[in-house]
Amino acid sequence: MSSVPHPLAPELRAVSGRDLAGLLLSLIIVAAPHAARTPWWLTGLVLALYGWRALLALLRAPLPPRWLLLLLGAAAMAGIWAEYHMLFGRTPGIVLLTVFSGLKLLEMRTHRDAMVIALLCFVLIITNFFYSQSIPAALAMCVALLVIVTTMVGFNAPRRPPRANLRTAGLLLAHSVPAALVLFLLFPRVQGPLWGLPQDAYAGITGLSDTMSPGTLARLAISDTIAFRAEFQDKPPPPRLRYWRGPVLWDFDGRTWRMGATEIAPFKAPTGGDARYRYSVVLEPHNRDWLFALETAASLPQDARFTADGQIVARRAVRERRRYDLISIADPAPEPRADPATLRRALRLPQDFNPRATALADEWRRDSGSDAQVLALAIDWLRVSHIVYTLEPPLLGRDSIDEFLFDSKAGFCEHFSSAFVFLMRAAGVPARVVTGYQGGDLNPVDNIITVRQSDAHAWAEVYLRGRGWLRVDPTAAAVPSRIESGLARAMPEGASLPLLMRPELRWLRPLRYNWEAITHKWNVWVLGYDPQRQRDLMAFVGIRDADWRNLTAALFIILGILMTLLVAWSLRRLTRPDPVQRAWVRFCRKLGARGVERAACEGPRDFSERAARSLPRARAAIGRIGELYLALRYGADAPPAKIDELRRLVRELRVT
Amino acid sequence: MIRNPLARPGFANWLYGFTPPERGAVVLSHRRVYIVPTRLGWLFGATLAILLIGSINYAISLGFALTFLLAGVGLAAMVHTARNLARMSVSVGRAEPVYAGESAQFRLYLDGHSQFERPAILVRHLACGTQLVIDVPPATSAEVVLALPAARRGWLRLGRVMLETRFPLGLFRAWSYVEPEARCLVYPRPERSAMPPMSADSGTGAGPARASGNDDFSGLRGYQLSDSPRHVAWKAVARSDDMLTKQFSGDAAADFWLDWQLLPARLDLEQRLSRLAGWVLSAERASARYGLRLPGVAIPPGHGDAHRAACLQALALFEAP
């Protein structure tokens, strides 16, 4: 064999300006979302590398030497180490990949290198999904795929106009959709992770924490991020009942409330109550183990546990979107039993803090005969205290509760609940802080309540002998509108609120409701598609308890059918030779079988004349066939009657 | 070539789905289009594996969607690559005769029989590596001229031709072999030399040296030292490099024979044929009437392109190797 260079081998084909432009566009599309998350100098570095390569191509200048690129790579790694103190965490790893894409671009000469960069683009697309898997992110993926695939087609058809390559890429992607859908639904899903994840895998997830100090919730309240959605089967609860219970905080050090030790307890469903709510919650990942439930939960979700202070916790931190079903009842029958040790814990206070508040509590204790009276006095006091509800409270000093209650008189719900529980404990009434969410936005389109981080709330529970733990919301006592109509109404005008909560943007609401309804479906059906849903789907089509073998079998059968259809499509647009040509070929074959073969260079007239001479018995028919063929093939028109005659003559030709 | 079982013609014919040479238009049925992933195809597969593992590990739903879309693109690309060759027909045109040492120009017509174009198809002659990449437009055929070195006189067969494509993504390589019935006549390499001395034994007894009179111009013959300079055909000499002498005679006796017997005995077969071919060309250029006599072959004197072609063909195929 010869050792001639292969003109289709990618390592021998030089990258053209068009290829480079396509790759740069692809890289910019897939790397752009990372720009917002990386320090400016790294973004600048990557852009500089891209720009450098484009400039070299424009000037037709040689590419930089390899040692320079290695040096640049080492410098970038050092910079990333300085910035993040690690190299292979999630964020630094992604930054490193984008820097490498720029360096690889600077040593790209042939189509082989170009393909490596195209494949790198695919990996960069997936890195965006660590941060967002929303519908816009999916659309951005489709655009990026189209650009990258068009560029790849361009590598293999350099002389074709880009528009034709775009069409081919679109066709390829369209053809891939059925197979992708089948794979998505039927590919046996494994519950990850397969191995340990980088330390910062879940960095940047917002949500409640197990501590609360002044400012904790106020910071959350400016976030539009969705905490969870609850889909109610019947009528959803009214706003004043929408208390979503989360972590319960016991221990106070003068500034910060902490959860402390929690104790797992057997779940006992409460009884009685005014209304029962059946609903399912789709909880966004928050990297903690709490599952939020409408007060008071009357059932326990699968794979969850119950604590003695009424929290529902998952066995593992919630790191992917999780769906669970719940039943809750409003105002259940009291559960008066309590453990004495627990009650002692609910009275503990740090020494020598907040003397004025302690004095106020002592005064209430002296003036009342029972815990219930103390509680009533405290609520009355709050109601007339004229404390302002604000997202931007002034900074507080050592005796934070004194300063809040008597000096600044302005605070957010953590100030109210913290001060209230302090006062109760100081007055000898067992009390604790409960954090969670209050409210949520009911979407009339699909009956789903969306709870955002801005709905984060803290309230109090006090223990009254004979009645058990009772919810008291001191914020509601001081600022009733917060509970009735949400944060936006409770705030004074001009306060900075999350964009979607601003009253002047009310006209956007219907749009927003529809969008959120679509997003919910997306979350449940696309992002929430997990092994469980896969089994449900198989059960729906009649295969119970499907394991990976059933799934694989089904997958291969359907993929086989799809491939067959695709092959059928690919052959569909091939023209069959026209009937005249087919008849002629058949004629030549018949004569060839009798030894009269047509030479490659012999025209139809010469051939039919020669054949007529050598086969005198069929002379008339052969002559007529030659005549018809010439007329039909080279004549101006082809009347169907003549075509039929030709076909009939050829069919009936006997040359024996 | 390495000797392996694949090289056995019977097995190869079964494997490649045809028995060479093939007459008429060869249609690349799916039976004879092969397809395998390229190195880039395997790299693409490895990337998909990385994406899949990442998606499982981090439970990224859209990661699964991306991985599976790309897997679908890979499968579609395979079908598209095979389609780029499927049912294409290859036919050959006439190859004009050439002289040994030149290159034979084989014309191949690739007909897509399709409404879509078939870009970037490599046509490569397996034995000598002549190759080029063409785009076959929709609904018409594209012409490819494969230049093959014609080293020896005789019939030159086209031999096996490979058609290959990696369009659209370069992830798969589809190829097919064809061996259409096509041959090109290769004449002996003509040797430039003086025209033969006229021998007495030139056949009919009408040897030109003897019979020439001075009245009617009847043609040209090779110059001999004894010829008068007045009879040299200077115009013909200006056109070619051979010294030619005008012949004048009153009858057809001016025909002369290019005879095997006239060649020096020291020449071997190929050299003899080369010299004879050179003589044929000279004689034709000089508008002479000439005949060719080889052992067992005699072409009566004549003149013109067809006569020259017949003489050269006789030389090309004489005791053909």
Strand residue content of chain A: 5-15%
Poorly predicted tracts of residues of chain B: 199-215, 249-253
Strand order of the largest sheet of chain B: 2-11-10-6-7
Largest interface, counted by CB within 8 Å of the partner chain's CB: A-B, 82 and 71 residues
Average pLDDT reading of chain B: 80
Helix-strand sequence of chain B: HEEHHEEEEEEEEEEHEHEEHEEH
Helix percentage range of chain B: 25-40%
Biggest sheet layout of chain A: 5 strands, antiparallel
Mean pLDDT of chain A comes to 84
Shape descriptor of chain B reads rod-shaped
Structural class by secondary-structure content of chain B: alpha+beta
Number of strands of chain A: 18
Strand-pairing-aware structural class of chain A? alpha+beta
SS summary, helix count of chain A: 22
Number of helical elements of chain B: 7
The structural domain count of chain A equals 4
End-to-end C-alpha gap of chain A? 46 Å
Secondary structure elements and their pairing?
The complex is a heterodimer of chains A (656) and B (321).
Chain A: H1 17-35, H2 40-59, H3 66-84, H4 90-106, H5 111-128, H6 135-156, H7 162-186, E1 211-212, H8 216-221, E2 226-232, E3 243-249, E4 251-252, E5 257-258, E6 276-283, E7 290-291, E8 293-294, E9 304-306, E10 312-314, E11 322-329, H9 340-345, H10 355-367, H11 371-383, E12 388-389, H12 400-408, E13 410-411, H13 413-426, E14 431-438, E15 441-443, E16 448-452, E17 456-464, E18 468-472, H14 474-478, H15 480-490, H16 509-527, H17 531-540, H18 548-572, H19 579-593, H20 604-614, H21 619-634, H22 640-652
Parallel strand pairs in A: 12-13
Antiparallel strand pairs in A: 1-5, 2-6, 2-16, 3-8, 3-14, 4-5, 6-11, 7-10, 9-10, 14-17, 15-16, 17-18
Chain B: H1 9-16, E1 26-27, E2 34-37, H2 39-58, H3 61-83, E3 89-92, E4 98-99, E5 103-111, E6 118-125, E7 131-136, E8 141-149, E9 154-157, E10 161-165, E11 172-178, E12 183-187, H4 208-211, E13 213-222, H5 234-239, E14 244-248, E15 256-259, H6 269-285, E16 290-294, E17 297-302, H7 305-317
Parallel strand pairs in B: 4-12, 15-16
Antiparallel strand pairs in B: 1-3, 2-11, 3-5, 5-8, 6-7, 6-10, 9-12, 10-11, 13-14, 16-17
Helix pairs in contact in B: 2-3, 6-7
